[in-house]
């Protein structure tokens, strides 16, 4: 169970971090796809910041679990 938890956490951190950074840096392909959904560039960047915060939260939880063990 612990191995599965670690693997899934690492995958989520990687996905959230990569997509969040791409949105914050306004990668053209992501911006064009999400603008079609009715989001402004500023809203897309806000979503990217939240994704990066989610990745940071997962890393913080993992580090806290390791330190307290």
What does this structure look like?
This protein has helices at 2-24, 28-35, 41-68. The chain has 69 residues and is mostly helical. The chain is elongated and about 45 Å long. The two termini are 16 Å apart. The mean pLDDT is 91.
Short description:
The protein is mostly helical and 69 residues long. It has helices at 2-24, 28-35, 41-68. The mean pLDDT is 91.
What's the topology here?
Blueprint lengths: L1 H23 L3 H8 L5 H28 L1
Helix pairs in contact: 1-3
Features:
single chain, 69 residues, mainly alpha, 3 helices, elongated
One letter per element, helices H and strands E, the order comes to HHH
Give start-end ranges of low-pLDDT stretches.
none
> How large, in whole angstroms, is the Cα Rg?
15 Å
Main pleated sheet: none
Structural class: mainly alpha
**DSSP E strands, number:** 0
- What is the strand content? under 5%
Helix content: over 70%
End-to-end distance: 16 Å
């Amino acid at each position: 169970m612990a191995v599965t938890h670690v693997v899934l956490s690492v995958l989520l951190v990687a996905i959230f971090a990569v997509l969040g950074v791409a949105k914050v840096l306004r990668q053209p392909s992501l911006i064009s796809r999400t603008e079609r959904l009715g989001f402004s560039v500023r809203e897309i960047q806000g979503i990217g910041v939240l994704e990066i915060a989610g990745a940071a939260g997962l890393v913080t939880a993992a580090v806290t679990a390791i330190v307290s063990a």
